[in-house]
């Protein structure tokens, strides 16, 4: 048989082995730092394998605006996670404890790429965005301050400077930029 015929048979065989049901997520390829993710954002972390339901972190392709951190003078139980993988839980804790406009609300309300699982990054996640995206000229970040979802205490929360790269705790009442992320 001609080579193009064998190619057609091979492709048909490969296609027939992929089954997607409502209970299983669509197959995903491998991504590298800087690639466009499934929601149109930019991949900034790959932990190497799926655990806790995710492998990659994707940053939204643009800022969601600016806001105060929110919850001024309120201690938020469950919003102290600062490690990679804690931003989603921090955001959920902030949303449960505080009403009104906040950085967490801006991030959670983002629906880029038709996805509704965006959250405000934790301190270490935000640092990775600075290192892996901003320093590489990716993401269109402003040379400004961005909120993390990591609270320090009832008055202060962590933010990241996208000017110099340092992190510190300003008053929650100050307006800072917001960039949503998602894990998949």
- Work out the number of β strands: 8
| Major sheet strand order | 1-2-8
Instruction: Tell me roughly what share of residues is in helical segments.
Output: 10-25%
Unreliable stretches covering 5 or more consecutive residues: 1-27
User: Could you say which overall geometry the principal axes of the C-alpha atoms support?
Assistant: globular
Task: Tell me the radius of gyration.
Answer: 19 Å
Structural class: alpha+beta
Distinct helical segment count: 4
Distance between the termini: 43 Å
Report the mean per-residue pLDDT as an integer: 88
Largest sheet, described in full?
3 strands, antiparallel
Report the portion of residues in β strands: 15-25%
How do the helices and strands follow one another from N- to C-terminus? HEEEHHHEEEEE
Written overview of the protein:
- The protein is an alpha+beta fold and 184 residues long.
- The strands form 3 sheets. A 3-stranded antiparallel β-sheet has the order 1-2-8, with helices on one face.
- Helix content is 23%, strand content 22%.
- The protein starts with a helix and ends with a strand.
Quick synopsis:
The protein has 184 residues and is α+β, with helices and mostly antiparallel strands. The chain has four helices and eight strands, in the order αβββαααβββββ.
Layout of secondary structure:
Blueprint: H1 3-16, E1 42-51, E2 54-59, E3 65-68, H2 87-97, H3 103-109, H4 123-132, E4 145-151, E5 157-161, E6 167-168, E7 175-178, E8 181-183
Antiparallel strand pairs: 1-2, 2-8, 3-7, 4-5, 5-6
